[in-house]
Structures are given as structure tokens and as C-alpha cells.
Task: inverse folding
């Protein structure tokens, strides 16, 4: 499934993608209710068993087409949130996306589908006992989302987890560089939280020597 901004058919892409996920036992509604979100969050916490997301950094890395699909759906779900608030016809800068649109989406609760998808992805990985390089950009984007809703603890949790996985996905240039760029941007959002900038600063240094940005 190819998700393209040119067609802007994010809703249709999500329907198809979620239908595929349902065949693997991962059920995600397009419009989750508050009660459903509360129940799913509890399942997510129980699956982690009081552990941090960083526990996934010790899991073996294996190719997984389902997680590759989840990475695309994560991007698609976020874009759908934005299109539900704005009619976008022109290219948006990374600054506009992170400083203007994500906060509005988060405040309106329109990121619930993204949160639910990420909870399901993590539960799937915990049950499977392995991860894939596709998870690292997802973790990096989670760091930005939590930065925009001023949850520095969660932001740091996902940022440190993504950073710890960088050396292990170095051969996957696309996900490696993409994750670094996203974390560098998260660093700019968390300037007031000086205690959290260590992993982001290191990500910036790594990104400068990582190679061509044509992998993005």
C-alpha cells in the first residue's frame, strides 16, 4: 500500500490498512471513543508490566512487513488528523507541522487514532518478542507528539529509546537518517528542558556524519 500526499486519501488508506491489521488480530477503529481509549491504555500499561518502552531496545531486530505497514499507517493517521483541521494544498514546512498543527491536533483529541495505533504496535512487538527498524521513526515521532503536549517524561522515554536503537539500525539508511532528523527537531521543541537534551544533541552530531539526506 502506497500512502501519498498527492492523493490525500488518508482516510481510505487507513481503512485498507486497518482492515489488513484486523486479519492479524490488531483491531483499530477510525473513531475511538473516550471509553475505548481508556480501556486500550490500560491494556497497553498491563502489557508493559511497569516497564519503560526502552525494554524493547534489548529485543532482536527482524524484518516484519506488518511493522513496515504500521510505520506507513502512523504517518497516514497523523496526516489525516491535520487534514481534518485544515485544507492543505501547499507544502508545509517542518516548523509549521510541529509548532502549529500537532498542538492543535493534540488539543482537539484528534491524535487518539495515532496513540491507539502506537499502543497496538508496541503490544504487538512485546508479544512477538522482536522489533524492526521501522519502529525507530515511530518512536522518534512519539517524542515530538509528547513534546508538543508538554509531557517531558514520555517525550524523554521515547527519545532515549529511539536513540538507543540508532547503532542497531545503521544499515537501514532511510529509517536511520529519518529518525535522527525527527529527534533533532524534537530537541528544538524541548529547549526549556535542558536535562532532556543530551540524547537529542548526540542525535544531531550523528546526523551530521550520517551521510546524504537523499535517504529521507
Result:
Amino acid at each position: 500500500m502506497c500512502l501519498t500526499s498527492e492523493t490525500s486519501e488518508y482516510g481510505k488508506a487507513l481503512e485498507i490498512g486497518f482492515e489488513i491489521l484486523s486479519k492479524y488480530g490488531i483491531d483499530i477503529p477510525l473513531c475511538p471513543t473516550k471509553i475505548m481509549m481508556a480501556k486500550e491504555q490500560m491494556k497497553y500499561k498491563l502489557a508493559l508490566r511497569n516497564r519503560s518502552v526502552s525494554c524493547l531496545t534489548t529485543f532482536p531486530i527482524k524484518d516484519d512487513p506488518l511493522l513496515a505497514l504500521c510505520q506507513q499507517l502512523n504517518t497516514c493517521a497523523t496526516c489525516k488528523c491535520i487534514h481534518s483541521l485544515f485544507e492543505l494544498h501547499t507544502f508545509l514546512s517542518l516548523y509549521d507541522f510541529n509548532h502549529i498543527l500537532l498542538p492543535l491536533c493534540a488539543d482537539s483529541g484528534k491524535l487518539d487514532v495515532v496513540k491507539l495505533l502506537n499502543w497496538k504496535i508496541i503490544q504487538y512487538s512485546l508479544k512477538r518478542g522482536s522489533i524492526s527498524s521501522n519502529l525507530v521513526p515511530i518512536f522518534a515521532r512519539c517524542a515530538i507528539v509528547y513534546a508538543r503536549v508538554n509531557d517531558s517524561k514520555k517525550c524523554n522515554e521515547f527519545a532515549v529509546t529511539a536513540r538507543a536503537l540508532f547503532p542497531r539500525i545503521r544499515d537501514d539508511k532511510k529509517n536511520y537518517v529519518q529518525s535522527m532528523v525527527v529527534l533533532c527537531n524534537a530537541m528544538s521543541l524541548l529547549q526549556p528542558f535542558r536535562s532532556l537534551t543530551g540524547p537529542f544533541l548526540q542525535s544531531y552530531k550523528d546526523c551530521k556524519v550520517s551521510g546524504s539526506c537523499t535517504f529521507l
Observations:
- DSSP finds nine helices and no strands in the chain.
- Residues 62 and 73 are 19 Å apart (CA to CA).
- The two ends are 19 Å apart (CA to CA).
